[in-house]
């Protein structure tokens, strides 16, 4: 086997810079969180899951209940009287991860769906939920749109930190 050793301060510095960038990914993850929060909010405006599929429409019984309670015509999917889910999408970036989600108690049900009575009954004996709720995936990363954007964010950060113009 033939080996070659070389010393180059520029190469050594480039490797050190890469290690420093990759050690603390917080700035990269912060930009990814910012992008994903905006992309997720846009899904509510579009009424689509991350892959562009339309969400199941609200059932007539839900629309009737909203009217009965005085909320008017709230026919946009995943938009309720307080519009809380679409407004309370949050993210957090650390050195090791980017996390996007919602702390609202019903956010998981909206994402995964639920069967009538899956959570038991209320104090009056009524099923919780009172009807089947279809899954309406609002949180996720699309292969077509989000993945290329995230890769671009990572590449931009690496190019900035390593002094490349690509």
Any descriptors?
single chain; 166 residues; mainly alpha; two-stranded antiparallel sheet; 6 helices; 2 strands
List the helices and strands and how they pair.
Blueprint: H1 9-23, H2 26-46, H3 60-68, H4 84-87, E1 90-93, E2 98-101, H5 107-112, H6 146-162
Antiparallel strand pairs: 1-2
Helix pairs in contact: 2-6
Helix content: 40-55%
Q: For the terminal residues, how far apart are their CA atoms? A: 35 Å
User: Mean pLDDT, nearest integer?
Assistant: 85
Report the structural category: mainly alpha
Radius of gyration: 23 Å
Tally of individual helices: 6
**How many beta-strand runs?**
2
| Strand content bin | under 5%
What's the order of the H and E elements?
A: HHHHEEHH
Tell the overall outline: elongated
- For this entry, what is the oligomeric state of its chains? single chain
Strand order of the largest sheet: 1-2
Largest sheet: 2 strands, antiparallel
Q: Could you name the ranges where pLDDT drops below 50 across 5 or more consecutive residues?
A: none
Question: How would you describe what is shown here?
Answer:
The protein has 166 residues and is mainly α. Helix content is 43%, strand content 5%. It contains 6 helices and 2 strands; from the N terminus they run H-H-H-H-E-E-H-H. It has a two-stranded antiparallel sheet with strand order 1-2. Strand 1 (90-93) and strand 2 form a beta hairpin. Helix 2 (26-46) packs antiparallel against helix 6. The relative contact order is 0.17.
């Amino acid at each position: 086997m033939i080996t070659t050793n070389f010393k180059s301060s520029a190469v050594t510095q480039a490797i050190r810079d890469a290690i420093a960038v990759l050690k603390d990914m917080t700035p990269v993850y912060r930009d990814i969180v910012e992008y994903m929060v905006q992309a997720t909010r846009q899904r509510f405006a579009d009424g689509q899951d991350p892959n562009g599929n339309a969400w199941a429409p609200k059932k007539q019984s839900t629309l009737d209940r909203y009217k009965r309670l005085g909320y008017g015509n709230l026919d946009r999917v995943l938009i309720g009287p307080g519009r809380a889910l679409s407004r309370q999408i949050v993210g957090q970036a650390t050195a090791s991860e980017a996390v996007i989600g919602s702390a609202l108690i019903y956010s998981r049900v909206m994402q995964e769906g639920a069967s009538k009575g899956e959570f038991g009954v209320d104090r009056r004996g009524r099923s919780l939920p009172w009807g089947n709720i279809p899954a309406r995936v609002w949180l996720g990363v699309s292969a077509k749109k989000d993945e290329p954007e995230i890769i671009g964010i990572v590449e931009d950060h690496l190019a900035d930190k390593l002094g490349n113009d690509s």
